Amino acid sequence: MSKIRLGLVGCGGMGHRHLYGLAELYKVGLCRFEPSVVCDPRRENAESLAQKIKEIFGTQPVIVGNISEIKDQDLQAIDICTDPRHHHTICVEAASKGWDIMTEKPMGLTVRACQIMRQASDEAGCILSVAENYRRDPINRMGKALLDAGIIGSPRYMIHNTAGGEDKMMITVWRHLKNVSGLLLDVGVHFADIMEYYMGPVSDIYAQTRLHEKIRYNEMAGRDPDSSPRHSPGGVYEHWQAEMPAEFEATAEDAAYATLTFESGAVCQYVEEHATFGQGFWHRGIYGSVGSMELPGDRSGQPVTIVRDGNTLQGEQLLELIPNFALDEATSVLFGGERLWRYDFPFPETDRKLIAIEYYDFAEAIDKNCQPEVDGYMGMRSVAVSYGIMESGQAGRQVSMESMMANDINNYQQEINESLGI
Q1: pLDDT for the residue 234
Q2: DSSP string covering 111-154, please?
Q3: Whether 57 contacts 27, CB under 8 Å
Q4: Which three-class secondary structure state does DSSP give residue 83?
Q5: Could you read off the pLDDT of 313-330 as tens digits, one per residue?
Q6: Which residues contact 92 (CB under 8 A, 6 or more apart)?
Q7: How confident is the model at residue 229 (pLDDT cuts 50, 70, 90)?
Q8: Model's pTM, two decimal places?
Q9: Which of 248, 304, 392, 400 is deepest in the core (most CB within 10 A)?
Q10: Is the model's pLDDT at 228 over the cut of 90?
Q11: pLDDT digit string (tens) for 81-127?
């Protein structure tokens, strides 16, 4: 089978994380991509990624500063790892060249940007895949199998609450800026996707939002990244964090308190708090007509817990309830088994493995000319749920997902769309 010539667009922290994910596939013999081009306006980033490709794959990719410099024949697919402001413009240009596209989440910076991406890829007949990793966690696969098997009965409500963060920078400055991303979008799309993965489509949203911490602090500023502990996702961002300002103004909301209704009639109590001091918390639980299911933090490898008929079930006991449950080939090989109920890897390794599964799914879609698991429609829904929370918070009323997907409600997003020129 011939290799799929791939371009990595955006060679900073996320670009490096994606390459390490691709390397995981390569190590187990499941990589169908040949990383042929690296693209970043910052030459240092592109050269760093190119050097790592040479070390891992033994090939030398072409280095360019702009996607327009890439020759059409050099590529078949691209992976967009830039900040979200550029996702839609790169997608449109790639689609015009007939390249298949995988993009990091959030799919686009606004619902309108997502619409543009879907239209461009649909008209060109290109695959558009969104790199959403939480649902691919083996523990979430098991949780979904338990739910689908009716082990807790019909789902009635979900609690999805998380809090922490204080006044610290989360990964990068741009994740705190409304016109580039914002925490409720950057993190929120993960949670939006996982809620719909478990509970089905959201129908309505009512929320309040806040910007609690208007000044954020970067603890890595000016430090030597090589002598500092690695705490960022994938352990790859410290190099760039050292160059970022020690403090800066945040312009995007950092807290959301919402009630979401699903088309099934089930309800979710949702708290996403990135400015909590003191005791943080995590709680994701689903409550059904005959029992409840507690889900662990994503990428933690911890087990699911079921409470039913007065009994608490966990671990291998749960596998007996879902005899047909089996992970796909890539997940089984990467995590070490078809029927996992827990795993124990260092976080950076888990992060790489889940990105590897994203790539595997993207390659499958290209080879079979079919839709990826998280396509442009699903990626756009996650963005619409996240902005539905923010639009509701600004408007002070309930908003429907139908209106959000149609881009009929966009007062909060208007300033962002104007800054994008769309």
Answers
A1: 66
A2: HHHHHHHHHHHHHHT--EEEE--GGGSHHHHHHHHHHHTTTT-S
A3: no
A4: coil
A5: 998 899 999 999 999 999
A6: 116, 117, 120
A7: confident
A8: 0.97
A9: 392
A10: no
A11: 999 999 999 999 999 999 999 999 999 999 999 999 999 999 999 99
* Angle at 406 (CA atoms; ends 403, 412), nearest 5 degrees: 65
What span, in angstroms and rounded, lies between the C-alpha atoms of 234 and 351?
6
**Residue 164 has which token pair?**
């922490």
CA gyration radius, the chain: 21
Q: What is the pLDDT of residue 235?
A: 75
Task: Name residue, tokens 């009639």.
Answer: 265
Q: Is the dihedral of CA 203, 209, 215, 217 positive or negative?
A: negative
Exposure string of 287-313, with b = 16+ CB inside 10 Å and e = fewer, is bbeebbbbbbebbbbbbbbbbbeeeeb
SS3 78: strand
**Among the listed residues 198, 246, 197, the one whose alpha carbon sits nearest the alpha carbon of residue 220:** 246
End-to-end, the C-alpha distance of the chain in Å comes to 41
Length in residues, the chain: 422
The answer for residues whose C-beta is within 8 angstroms of residue 387's C-beta and 6 or more apart is: 110, 111, 185, 404, 410, 412, 413
Whether residue 412 contacts residue 403, with contact meaning beta carbons closer than 8 Å, is answered with no
Whether residue 251 contacts residue 178, with contact meaning beta carbons closer than 8 Å, is answered with: yes
For 346, the token pair is: 């260092």
DSSP state of 70: S
What does the pLDDT look like over 245-294, one tens digit per residue?
999 999 999 999 999 999 999 999 999 999 999 999 999 999 999 999 99
